[in-house]
Specification:
With 194 residues, the protein is mainly beta. The protein has two helices and 13 strands.
Length: 194
């Protein structure tokens, strides 16, 4: 009888330890730990990061983490208005959005158009994703970057996998791309990999 109890305790502690490795990148209150790059307007509403064009200075832009990451699993939930809004998740950008992260680091595309050159989940200009339609409302994206290997899951389904060595470390961030579109991000967390 003691062995099953010990096993259950050890198993529970292992699960707690794994969950403790996740770090939230957004406090749900303000943009602490984040810096805008470009012309987009970023704010927090009801615990959600909201990005859109700024009417005073039109043009897209990025919201980039102040911290840099190399090997990690990044999880984020997103939705757009309209549903097919053009956006992206930047990873490993060494320039922190000073230039386009799609070329200095990587951009994981958000674009719910079936015949798009790079639909949602694509590693922009590196690997086209298998098209999976976005759900109405919130969608989840999980990006694993380990060494040169990048894997993208969309709502739990693998849509892209590639190897590329353009950038192995940098900030992560979010894109507001097009006029008249609003993009929302929440539940942003990261787990560093060893």
């Amino acid at each position: 009888m003691r062995i099953p109890v010990r096993f259950a305790v050890i198993f529970f502690l292992a699960l707690v330890s794994l969950e403790a490795q996740w770090v939230s990148l957004f406090n749900g209150k303000d943009l602490s730990g984040w810096k805008p790059a470009g012309n987009a307007a970023w704010k927090v509403e009801s615990g959600v990061i909201v990005g859109q064009w700024d009417p005073a200075k039109p043009g897209g832009g990025w919201l980039m983490s102040e911290r840099e990451f190399s090997d990690f699993v990044l999880q984020v939930e997103f939705r757009g208005e309209p549903k097919h809004a053009n956006s992206g998740v930047a990873i490993r950008d060494p320039l922190h959005g000073a230039k386009d992260p799609a070329y200095s680091g990587y951009e994981i595309q958000i674009l719910d158009i079936p015949d798009a050159k790079m639909p949602t989940g694509s590693v922009y200009n590196v690997q086209k994703a298998k098209y999976v339609p976005l759900k109405d409302g919130w969608n989840s994206m999980e990006i694993t970057a380990r060494g040169t290997h990048i894997v993208v899951l969309l709502n739990g389904e693998k849509v892209a996998e590639t190897d590329d060595d353009r950038s192995l470390q940098g900030s992560v961030g979010f894109q507001s791309h097009s006029q008249g579109e609003v993009i929302y991000f929440r539940n942003i967390r990261i787990q560093k990999l060893k």
